[in-house]
Amino acid sequence: MFAFHLRRYTQIFIGCLISGAAMNIFLVPAQLLSGGISGIAIILYYLFNLPIGIQLIIYNLPIVYLSYRVFGKLYAVDTIIGMTLFSVCIDTTSFLASYNTIDNRMLNSIFGGVLSGIGFGIIFRADSNTGGLDVVGAVIKKFYSFDVGTAIFVLNLVIIVIGIFIFNVNTGLYTLIGMYISAEMTNKVVAGFNRKKSIMIVSPKAEQIAPLIMQYLNRGVTFFHGEGAFTRQQKNIMLVVASLTQISKIKSIVYALDPTAFMIISDASEVAGRGFTIKNINPAELAKQNYYDEDEDKD
Closest by alpha carbon to 262, among 233, 288, 236? Predict the structure, then answer.
């Protein structure tokens, strides 16, 4: 249990460090904003030179209390830890803003969004948060059945409009680009980069197709028993998860045996299990092992 919590909080710290560094390396030198409470803190930093991290702690105090009242003690503790680490990481890496290595605002917006998105994704994968609008969005959804993503987007849009009025339109538009990229990267990190393809095949020749896929591609096949709504015929539906490079081979096998086969190919993420996160077993070896096991049972 101790090792689990140590790994989890280390992960949260790394995520906070990456996001905090991204803000100081890319956003602050280019006078760009970010989403959430951080956007408000950055605006006041530009206007009055107030430390961003300290501002975040102050602004998040009522949000921490709100999270405690609505979601309970454990959620509030996680919010405090994430918020504190993020605030500390922002202020301790503030010296990086003085280097101003990139003088192109578009590049700052893009790479700031990428790096901060990676950091927030790591935090969210640890089932934590940094306070701010994430908590507000969750509260809104709980009481008003409003989508969290939509709620956060609307609140961020308000921050962008404020930035446009205080600074200029370019600042708001570049900020919007960075926020979009950050959200996309966050989603990719949370969903995982272990992306595969999920293939569903409907064919009356499923019994002939499945052994070829297992033999030549060493991929498992799962049968679902279905019935055609129009013909009322019983049929086997095959489910296969494979890599992108194996798609063409699977299609060749399927259409060679059944040119009229119905096939659906979709994206799959966080694929776990035998053949992906666990070493696969060759079907021939498995059949051979089962043969010997049956002989032993007979003896």
Answer: 236
Tokens of 144: 């008003």
Pull the structure tokens for residue 109: 């917006």
Task: Please report the sign of the dihedral spanned by the C-alpha atoms of residue 173, residue 161, residue 117, residue 111.
Answer: positive
Note the residue count of the chain: 299
**Cα gap 170→155, rounded to integer Å:** 19
Which tens digits make up the pLDDT trace of 196-244?
A: 889 999 999 999 999 999 988 888 899 999 888 888 888 889 999 988 7
User: ∠ at Cα 176 (171, 182), nearest 5°?
Assistant: 125
- The residues facing 254 across adjacent strands are none
Q: Within a 13 Å sphere around the CA of 291, how many CA atoms are in the beta-carbon half? A: 6
Per-residue pLDDT reduced to its tens digit, 128-141: 889 888 787 777 77
